[in-house]
Amino acid sequence: MKKRKHPAGHLLMVLMLVFFYLPILYMVIFSFNDGKSLTSFTGFSLRWYRHMLDSGDMMEALYTTFGVAIAATFISTVAGTIAAIGLSRSKKLVRDLMEQVNNLPIMNPEIVTAIGFMLLFITFKVEKGYVTMLLAHIAFCIPYVMLSVMPKIRSLDPNLADAAMDLGATPWQALTKVIVPQITPGIVSGALIAFTMSVDDFIISYFVTGGGVKNLSIMVYTMSKRVNPSINAISTLVVVIITVVLVIVNLAPLLAAKREEKEEIGKRRLLIPTVSVLCVLALVAGVIYHRQENSRRPFEGQTLHVYNWGEYTGENILGDFEELTGAKVVVENFDSNEQMYIKVANGEAYDILVPSDYMIQRLISEDFLQKLDHSKLDCMNKLTESVKGLPYDSKNEYSVPYFWGSVGIVYDKTKVDEKELEKEGYNIFLDEKYKGDIYLYDSERDSFMMALKALGYSMNTEDEREIEEAFNWLVQCVQTMEPEIVTDEIIDNMAQGRKALGLIYSGDATYVMAENENMGFYLPKTGTNLWSDAMVIPKNAKNPELAHAFINYASDYDGAYDNSSYVGYTSANQEVMDTLSGEGGDFEGINAYIPRSGNDMDEVFVYNEDVKKIISNLWSRVKIAASNAD
Q1: Closest Cα partner for 136 from 148, 120, 147, 149?
Q2: Which sequence spans correspond to the domains of the chain?
């Protein structure tokens, strides 16, 4: 009987393949892009692969990812298989109960599991790092192995092991020569799932790691917060590695089946574990590599633990500081002040934090910071006066500014006339002429700042009526203007001129304007948020003397120049500001680089827990209104 063709089914399959693989193809293509844009291909280049290979952090993350994945896969496969076989010999009540217990971690939200592991390690005072990440990966991989092995065990004759022993086999031989070969497909399937889960995991890894240990998922997440095309290169490398592994896994059985001689088969069976061991040894060797240093340097052998925003340091500052001092710098990254606060409040020990102004105020009030020893600081006279003595730390007793800036409007000069901006200010976000052509920033703090300033109020108001008016202003905006609510995607999108205007941080606007001469930056006269991120030393810092040395270095010309020229945010160092914004500087003629001074309406955020809760709740309602409008 002739089989019927199903063109609709074939088309659906093709569309599914395109849906799954087109983004990967897009990523691979842009990994060879000569420019920094993640959306506009400007020419073929290997520059981002060279940058990836030169980056110690990226390569160490690669070693960590596959080192943990291989070890966790091996241990969880062995443990899960033994547990599954043991359960198969248990009473039905025990077996059913344990199967439900095994299913719980699989069904449990990852964030709940992650916080559970974090609290467990904190409770037992286990120092977080490589070992805690490995233990967590083993724990969450075992249930998947058991889930794959159990059906194969159920399909076996329950008397198979007894029959083997009746024929003279020992219990060990019955297990290894009779039972295991029968359930091998389930074991292999479980191992592959465990390996995939380990390589892929981000949420659990993020909460259980420490000491600067990062896997690729954490690294890629950190890099994705700002424009960094190396993310495409490292992701492409992972795709290549996984593809090679899959090819080997699928071709190995076919090649082995063609070999008829037992000796050759035996050699091939020996080859796989040998290669695996060699791979593990190579990965371990890569992780524990170290450089020989001059023993006379002042902080030889010491370690500095820094907790900073992702993509917030220059390319050379950390390596140069290590070279100068002999110390090792371990950096962990956060993507919000609140995320940083959780770790600090739970006793995580860091030598330097780089929080924002309002969070520094909170950390001071809750006694999490130690006062700086100004006798060890020689950097304060090198900083611009505009960013010293701000309200959150009026005498700079606790903090030294790192970057600073403002929040304003980035706009396409071919679509928006600056005279309109001068006339309307933030209210241009309600001008229906730009309906569907604007970006709002997904930040409750900055969005309410914009709305309050548009209405002529202080962004630090405690008046609930004024806050309610700002809420209504934002609801009107999302319901009538069809804005796209984004975070750091605005950087590349505005650099490509995708919309007419958007709310943006001045440092990001600096990059946008450097990439596209048609982009401008405007600060409404009604005021803005003058923000500052600063270096502070927690009370539980283990190496405050080295922390003071790093603050000096990051604030001095070389360190500050490397930071600011690479990141694009405004340096607190006056000489660096003048150099980068002056004639021949990287940001010459870009007004976004130098924050505005002298406007009495500009403010620094003041931390108020009650107001924060109100605004957080109202911002959630704004986003609901936006989704309903869509």
Answers
A1: 120
A2: 57-287, 303-404+532-581, 407-529+600-629
Q: How crowded is the C-beta side of 608, counted as CA atoms within 13 Å?
A: 13
Q: Using one digit for the tens of pLDDT, what is the confidence trace for 390-438?
A: 999 999 999 999 999 999 999 999 999 999 999 999 999 999 999 999 9
Number of Cβ within 10 Å of residue 259's Cβ equals 13
Look-up of token digits 């089989």: 3
Tally Cβ neighbours within 10 Å of residue 149.
28
Contacts of 252 (CB under 8 A, 6+ apart): 272
* The two domains 303-404+532-581 and 407-529+600-629 share their CATH topology (first three levels equal): yes
What does the pLDDT average to over 594-611?
92
CATH ID of 303-404+532-581, from 3.40.50.150, 3.40.190.10, 3.40.50.10490, 3.10.450.350: 3.40.190.10
Q: Cα–Cα distance between 562 and 568 in angstroms, integer?
A: 10
Tell me, yes or no, if the pTM score tops 0.85: no
CA distance 528 to 536: 25
Residue 587, SS3? coil
Distances in Å between the alpha carbon of 393 and those of 12, 425, 527, 603? 61, 30, 21, 14
Distance CA 628, CA 609 (A): 29
Phi then psi for 436, rounded to 5 degrees? Answer: 75, 5
Distance CA 24, CA 66 (A): 20
- Give the Cα separation of 188 and 206 in Å (integer): 28
Task: Name the 3-class secondary structure at 352.
Answer: strand
Mean pLDDT throughout 294-315? 84
Over residues 142-190, the pLDDT tens digits come to 999 999 999 999 888 888 888 888 888 888 888 888 899 999 999 999 9
| Per-residue pLDDT tens digits for 309-321 | 988 999 889 989 9
* Residue 624 or 263, more confident: 624
Q: What CATH code would you report for 407-529+600-629?
A: 3.40.190.10
| Residues 533/469, Cβ–Cβ less than 8 Å | no
